[in-house]
Design brief:
The complex is a heterodimer of chains A (364) and B (281).
Chain A: H1 2-13, H2 15-24, E1 27-28, H3 38-59, H4 67-76, H5 81-108, H6 117-139, H7 144-155, H8 163-172, H9 179-211, E2 240-241, H10 242-267, H11 297-305, H12 309-324, H13 326-329, H14 341-363
Chain B: H1 2-21, H2 23-31, H3 43-48, H4 55-65, H5 68-71, H6 76-80, H7 106-111, H8 115-123, H9 125-133, H10 139-143, H11 158-161, H12 168-196, H13 202-219, H14 224-279
Helix pairs in contact in B: 8-9, 8-13, 12-13, 12-14, 13-14
The chains are: A mainly alpha (364), B mainly alpha (281).
């Protein structure tokens, strides 16, 4: 029967040719390293989020009076609901970590350089969409943790003169975080953001395949930088076949990702669900030590350190702008970061400051 | 790099400039806490902690802050009345302010909230003595006032009871209360542990709290035979809650074992894939 289906497709769409072109004959750089698999791991992480999210959606009630109870129902009554929810919660954090690692590896290998500027920009937009996903999803359990962490984040736009209050109101739908905010964030999380993410992901993948995978700049055989004056697909006739050689490495990393996820679920199930996550939202009781999620701690602490909040937000927007359009600022042809001490210093300084701010934000 | 510096300078200058123009707005924003609008501090507390106040009055707030009442958001006005939002009316009798109640008024003062306990207390020898000739112990004799802590059977002790009578009868009562009290304490501990493991425990907590409240009512009557008669009922009620917590702990163990099993399966799969990848094409 399987053969029949393949034959049926072969006659109509030339399936075997397609698979040969896209997988076995498609060659990746011979010196490709394990960090090149992070893109597919991130994609797989998105798929897990989508699948577990779909199952949660079957039982979740997006209403301020029922949301918390419905999540508790999933955790205690629905068969294996706890597993699905923990996979979703732990997965969302690991997904952000993988996306960050992917971004760092692309930066270190200077893979964003001409002709891949657009791939970087779309990747940056994907990161922002991912973070918006996390932000909107965080409120949905309607716990003390989600309620107050969202209150912190949705207060940020009020730093802008004139537009600030309006922006915050647009986000919350009321003066304070309320049932309306929950509805807005729910709609954002399950209806508005997914098509944006899929479109951006499709575009990202299209650009990667259309331009070709960039070669790591660290190997001895790496060709000297040359100017790129017209379009060409970067081919690697001497490279290794995508399938099975590289594909199996990707699968190995995907499994490793799953092992890490289940390690956290087994031994640290409350790592991302502290006590406040098991208390229903109470707008009249502000818990002590409430903090945003770990990936928002650095910008949060930075804002706390700058007394002029408008200046704080402005600087962050400038930094975001620079990050998003970085390939247009870094126009040097040299791709080996080891030969660029200034860039290397900026990189380590940024990572160091980010880590310090995150730790500071966590314990301040 | 030059472009970045230029951009940073432009935005910093604009930011500082707009910041200056919008001083009032920013002031308001800076004053806003990151969490939520501040809960207005009671004027009783702000006045009683100010330097204008005598040390002994300041001490009241210090003691209250350590108390079980403070932990449960029971503030000054909840007992003493008055208006905690209006400095002028904070101690107004019109707003129900009562300063220090007289010795015999104390049970009614506390009984505004602890109505059930009040009823049972008046049935006891303690309550009757207070009502008849003002000699019986009132609530603060055993529980203290501003520094009040969560009640336990340790309140019943030789030092305290023998101030007025022999300890013998109190000792028998304490022994009768012991098993129930221990079960209640163990259940609270178990609930705390479940909470730390991410389990929603509010309903369970309420169940224990309700049972504990009924239990407290019981022994304010200071009737040993009544306590002995009721102990079985309380133990049954608590055992039912204990079964629920045990089920939750067993569920947590199952979850851990199940996810560990999947983790091991995946790790095995990972090793197989790794070995295949090492074999080469």
């Amino acid at each position: 029967m399987w053969k029949g289906i393949v034959e049926w497709l072969e006659v109509r769409i030339g399936l075997k040719d397609f698979l040969r072109e896209q997988f076995t004959e498609y060659r990746v750089p011979p010196d490709i390293n394990i960090f090149y698999t992070l893109g597919i791991v991130a994609f797989f992480a998105y798929i897990i989020q989508a699948v577990t999210g779909f199952f949660l959606l079957l039982y979740y009630i997006p209403h301020s009076e029922h949301a918390f109870q419905s999540v508790q129902h999933i955790m205690t009554e629905v068969p294996y609901g706890w597993l699905i929810r923990l996979m979703h919660v732990v997965g969302s954090n690991l997904m952000v970590a993988v996306v960050f690692l992917h971004l760092i590896s692309v930066f270190i290998m200077n893979s964003y350089k001409k002709p891949r500027e657009l791939t970087w920009v779309v990747g940056g937009l994907l990161l922002l969409t991912t973070l918006t996903f996390c932000l909107s999803g965080y409120l949905l359990p309607w716990s003390q943790l989600s309620f107050w962490a969202t209150t912190i984040v949705t207060n940020l736009p009020t730093a802008f003169p004139y537009l600030g209050d309006w922006l915050a109101y647009l986000l919350k739908g009321s003066e304070q975080v309320s049932g309306t905010t929950l509805n807005r964030f729910f709609a954002l999380h399950v209806a508005f953001l997914p098509p944006i993410l899929v479109t951006l992901f499709g575009l990202h993948l299209f650009l990667v395949r259309r331009i070709g995978i960039s070669r790591p700049p660290f190997s001895k055989n790496y060709p000297p930088p040359s100017s790129w004056t017209q379009y060409r697909h970067e081919e690697y006739p001497e490279g290794i076949p995508f399938y099975p050689s590289f594909f199996i490495k990707e699968m190995y990393m995907v499994v490793l990702y799953m092992v890490i996820m289940f390690f956290v679920i087994t031994f640290m199930p409350t790592l991302f669900l502290p006590e406040e996550a098991s208390i229903p939202a109470d707008p009249y009781t502000t818990p002590l030590h409430i903090k945003p999620e770990w990936y928002f701690l650095a910008p949060y602490q930075m804002l706390k350190l700058i007394p002029n909040k408008f200046l704080g937000i402005s600087i962050q927007l400038v930094l975001l702008f620079i990050f998003l359009f970085w390939p247009f600022f870094d126009t040097s042809d040299e791709r080996d970061i080891r030969k660029r001490p200034l860039l290397l210093t900026v990189f380590f300084l940024t990572i160091g400051v980010w880590i310090i701010l995150t730790i500071w934000g966590k314990y301040s | 790099m030059k472009r970045i510096l230029v951009l940073l300078v432009i935005f910093t200058v604009t930011g500082v400039a707009s910041g200056g123009f919008k001083e009032k707005f920013i002031e308001e924003f800076v004053k806003k806490p990151w969490g939520a609008p501040p809960s207005q501090e009671s004027v009783c507390i702000s006045c009683h902690t100010s330097d204008l106040m005598k040390e002994e009055f300041k001490e009241i707030v210090r003691q209250w802050r350590q108390s079980w009442h403070a932990k449960n958001n029971i503030s000054c006005h909840d007992c003493h009345g008055g208006d905690p939002k209006d400095e002028k009316m904070a101690m107004s009798e019109e707003r129900g302010f009562v300063g220090v109640p007289s010795y015999t008024e104390v049970p009614e003062f506390c009984g505004k909230c602890h109505a059930g306990v009040l009823e049972n207390y008046y049935k006891s020898g303690h309550g009757m003595a207070l009502k008849n000739d003002g000699t019986g112990p009132n609530c603060v004799i055993c529980h203290g006032s501003h520094q009040i802590q969560r009640a336990t059977i340790d309140i019943i002790n030789e030092k305290r009871c023998s101030q007025c009578h022999t300890y013998e009868r109190a000792k028998i009562m304490k022994q009768a209360l012991f098993s129930t009290e221990k079960k209640i304490t163990d259940l609270y501990d178990a609930i705390e542990r479940l909470k730390k493991k991410g389990i929603y425990t509010e309903e369970l907590y309420k169940e224990v709290f309700r049972t504990e409240a009924d239990f407290r009512l019981l022994f304010h009557e200071v009737n040993v035979s009544l306590i002995k008669e009721s102990t079985d009922d309380f133990l049954k009620r608590l055992s039912k809650i204990e079964e629920k917590t045990a089920r939750l702990f067993s569920e947590l163990r199952f979850r851990q074992n199940f996810s560990a099993f999947i983790m091991l399966l995946l790790a095995g799969l990972g090793i197989v894939i790794f070995l295949i990848s090492k074999r080469g094409p």
